Backbone:
């Protein structure tokens, strides 16, 4: 499976961005999906995940209520809508897929496929 993340860019604090992650090579509906991010000098951290069925989602506490993960299996694409962005959320954002049980997990080691990342920069 190949993943292509896009939609990153420069935004002012309080603004919004929508990230997309397009999958190719396999049908997206076979996988749970997640977004992680890595800020400069920090470890990669979990942001949001969605089950294979799309019926259930999970968020990091820091983004809950501001970010929304969704998927369109017909378009083989996962999205991350980010609202009320903060400067400390400047990071490279990565999408990831997990096969197997289709359930979502929060640890990066539990995901099988990764995109190349897209840079999000939030200015103050």
Residues:
């Amino acid at each position: 499976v190949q993943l292509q993340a896009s939609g990153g860019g420069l935004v002012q604090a309080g603004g919004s961005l929508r990230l997309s992650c397009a999958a190719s090579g396999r049908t997206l509906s076979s996988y749970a999906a997640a977004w992680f991010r890595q800020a400069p000098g920090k470890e990669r951290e979990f942001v949001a995940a969605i089950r294979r069925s799309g019926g259930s989602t999970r968020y990091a506490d820091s983004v809950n209520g501001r970010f929304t993960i969704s998927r369109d299996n017909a378009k083989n694409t996962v999205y991350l809508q980010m609202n009320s962005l903060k400067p400390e959320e400047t990071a490279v954002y990565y999408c990831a897929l997990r096969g197997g049980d289709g359930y979502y997990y929060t640890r990066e080691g539990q995901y099988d496929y990764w995109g190349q990342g897209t840079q999000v920069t939030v200015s103050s």
User: Anything to note?
Assistant: The chain has a mean pLDDT of 95. The chain is about 0% helix and 50% strand. Residues 1 and 103 are 18 Å apart (CA to CA).
